[in-house]
Design a protein that fits this description.
Strand content: 25-35%
Order of helices and strands: HHEEEEEEEEEEEHHEE
Low-confidence stretches: 1-5, 12-47, 49-57
Helix content: 10-25%
Distance between the termini: 38 Å
Amino acid sequence: MDAHDHSLAADLEAMMNMGSSRRRSLRWLLAGAAALPLAGCGGGSGSAGSGTATGSTGSCTVIPEETGGPYPGDGTNSNASGIVNVLTQSAVVRSDIRSSFNGASGTAAGIPLTVKLKIVNAYASCGAAGSFAVYLWHCDREGRYSLYSQGVTDQNYLRGVQAADADGNLTFTTIFPGCYDGRMPHIHFEVYRSLAQSSSAANRIKTSQFTFPLATMNEVYATSGYASSASNLSRISFATDNIFSDGYSLQLGSMTGNVTDGYIVTLVVAIAA
């Protein structure tokens, strides 16, 4: 896959060619047309609708279940060299995910982004879920996924695991992801019941994605290094995105910051714990 041809079509081809189950492949392919198990307390507001989201419990709604896509790196599929799994590597537990680890070198360039998630339990009056853990990953400024995309198969940056504190809070330091052709900018994550259980994707209890306000995307993509993202973003919208077209209010992060100092995105993630 060429670094400048990382498109939705390329994702589809990669998904069908990798060793994930047929059920997960079909689910990803149909994500834009079929309702998924839906779900969370949202982090954003505005014109975004909640689509077909259901599962309200108390004062919050469980965040939608979404595909992990073709580049999870969690042991559920392969790249050209075989099974790809960073979860078994202890060094993956880290807050700053900008650099590669476990013998790999390289640091992802881009506008600094701090991700602040709060995991709450929709089955406990939306109280803090406590000791849960999150594996988070996303593409780089050029729209490439480490371990999979041409030019960065020897990198594992922009992937990491963090355990929530007693109040359900956790933080990642990363860069604002690029926009590749065919998808709105997004970040993937998986939720686990504990840090110990996060070493195996079989233990994940929620897989989802979140996105950003359009105004923030336009600010970031007007800066040096994000030129291809600006062009790709002009050809996609939330209404045509195959994941967010059925509503994204529960998956829209709240933003503060600027291109000079970096941004902070916050999101409350309700799970049925």
